[in-house]
What we know:
The structure holds 2 protein chains of 2 kinds. Chain A has one domain (4-175). Helices cover 28% and strands 20% of the residues of chain A. Chain A contains 5 helices and 8 strands; from the N terminus they run E-E-E-E-H-E-E-H-E-H-E-H-H. The termini of chain A are far apart. Chain B is α+β, with helices and mostly antiparallel strands. In chain B, strand 1 and strand 2 form a beta hairpin. The longest helix of chain B is centred in the first third of the chain and has 22 residues, at 6-27. Chain A binds chain B through residues 68, 92-96, 98-100, 102, 106-107, 121, 123-124, 126-128, 130-131, 147, 150-158, 163-167, 169-170, and chain B through 5, 7, 10-11, 14-15, 17-18, 22, 35, 38-39, 121, 151-152, 154-163, 227, 235, 238-239, 243, 273, 277-279, 282, 284-285, 288.
Amino acid sequence: MANKLIKGDIVVANEWTVLRLAEGESPETVKLPFGNVLVPLAVWQARQWDLVRRHWDQGHLLGVWLGPKDDPAQLAADLAHFSVVGVHFPLAGDGRGYSIATLLRTRYGYTGELRAIGAVGRDYLHFLRRVGFDAFEVNDAESAIASLEDFSDVYQVAADGRLPGFRRSATTALAA
Amino acid sequence: MYTYNDTDRLLVAERVAQYRDQTRRYLAGELSEDQFRPLRLQNGLYYQRHNPMLRIAIPYGQVSARQMRLLARITRTYDRGVGHFSTRHNLQLNWVRTDQVPDILAELAKLDMHAIQSSGSCIRVVTTDPLAGVAPDEVADPRPWSEVFRQWSTLHPEFVALPRKFKVAFAGGPDDAASVRTHDLGFELVRDGQGQLGFRVWAGGGLGRTPILGQVVREFLPWRDLLTYAEALLRVYNLNGRRDNLYKSRIKILVQSLGIDEMARQVEAEWRHLQGGPQTLTDAEVERIAAHFAPPDYELLPQLDSRFEFSRRFDKEFAAWVKTNAHAHRQPGYVAVTLSLKAPGRAPGDATAEQLDIAADLAERFAFGELRTAQTQNLILPDVRKRDLYNLWQEAKKAGLATPSVGLLTDIVSCPGGDFCGLANARSLPLAAAVQARFADRAALADIGELRLNISGCVNACGHHHVGAIGILGVDKNGEERYQITLGGAIGSQAAIGSIIGPSFPAAEVPAAVERIVEHYRACRRPKERFIDTIRRIGAKSFASAAYAKDFPDFENEREAVNG
């Protein structure tokens, strides 16, 4: 886990750990690490009350992460509980996370921190931010952060709410 | 044609800057081969057999004379002076250097060109009918919609890492030279009962190792909904397309496994959330884009031109060229003209830098400074006065751009094959040359008539052999290059995947086998019946026995015995 994180447009310390189930571990019995932890969807589903109790008793924040095969609809009703939702990219070439993020933001109304974890390279930051991520676990965060500004205009509507030119002029015309 | 605005220029320039830094980090060892691969692919750079190849995008095939001269200069400066036009409007340079690619892209950007998304697992360069806007029978001009789609799909953040490549084509009507049914997603312009313009949407087509024709996923899509519907369909594919097996990851496999009805249902369900949203097209936006594709200032001319008719009557060679290389036009007194890149002995689709310059000159002198690239790997001048044809022909002939073979057997479509490509099992180019040599006699060729012959060097099918009336596929059999023949493939409204006729042939046998197939056609055809129609009538099987005659004399004797 990177100990630095891009959050918004600054580099901050990463105060979360990501729980991954190792071979042979089950969501029901896996030991929950101390502190703020992003748990897999299966652990959230199996241990919801354990996690909520930790939150109440010890103040650890609630977080969950989705893998590329997870359906964000399964989390829809719970989203308000989480301080952080992570979306895991096992490979840079596995782009399901872009659609999962889009759905979390535009379909299920998640407004908290949405964090890209896994194979997150600086060359994808612009795209990740556009689909709704606002936090990025990336190596060399201090130099990578510049790539958030790789492109200064957009051609299409995405979860970040930026509008392509033809919609901007339409909005201006309406406002006038 | 479309001219860039500030946003277009800015985005292309920023893409060059981004890729320049990515290249720098790769060459400095900061990016691994694996990390760099998707980045370079989505900027058009392939690593192939001998050398990196750069695939320059020519979206929907439209290119100005100025841009063509720039391509000539780049071909001369950064390559060995020869470019190769692919079957998808792109220009491929086979001898570029990785470290120089950012400079090439910067030069391209100066004239509003790029190599964005010409490769990789993303939405590829959009294609359309090369006669778009001038073909007499189209429902509407597909170019404005192609440009709308180009913009939307360029740097689309959600679809930068699809399960696999995603090819999109637009057709202006039912006469479909764009071949929407062999694309992952195809939009065919149609009008509904009320005369409203929209699209019939085809999904799940593709060639490659598993050739499948697309099916109708939506019978009528109003034009305003083009992009929201595309987003819904792409999202369903992005989330559900297979990623465990490269060969099963195209949308065609998803459509096959779900069935077209279930695919349509899922897309509609997703679309319901997007329909009417901010990505919905507006009249103003479509008018803005369409204005770029207004017809040029045509002269008002009679349909007949006496000088043209005179030349055609008295110069047989010119008449033969006109017959194949000039195409009907909606404006009286005009034709569209194919500048052929199929000179005998030359690789199909190859053009020297000099030829690119000359093509640009011809476009400026005779065709409002505009050219098109065709799926048949030729160039097209879309708007030429009949009056100018004779002069144009003489100039084109001098430049080796007037091979009178468009639509005929020797107008071969071929991938670069094993001479260049790292994927190929077999070489395509020597075979193309051998077939062309075998059919050098022009009178015989004219008698054979319309016949699409396509060659691919491997199952990836870049030469589109599945949709050639005669398709030739290079296969590797114990280290030997051999070729399988398929018959009956077609594009357009009668699109069909060809069927394999039998065991593969060694290279040396292929031209003779093709000749025997063609002779069989000439023996069996009805008056004016095209090759493809004869195959449809009597079946590919009948041709198989003809094709193998020489290889299997016993087989032939057996048949006679049975018949006798």
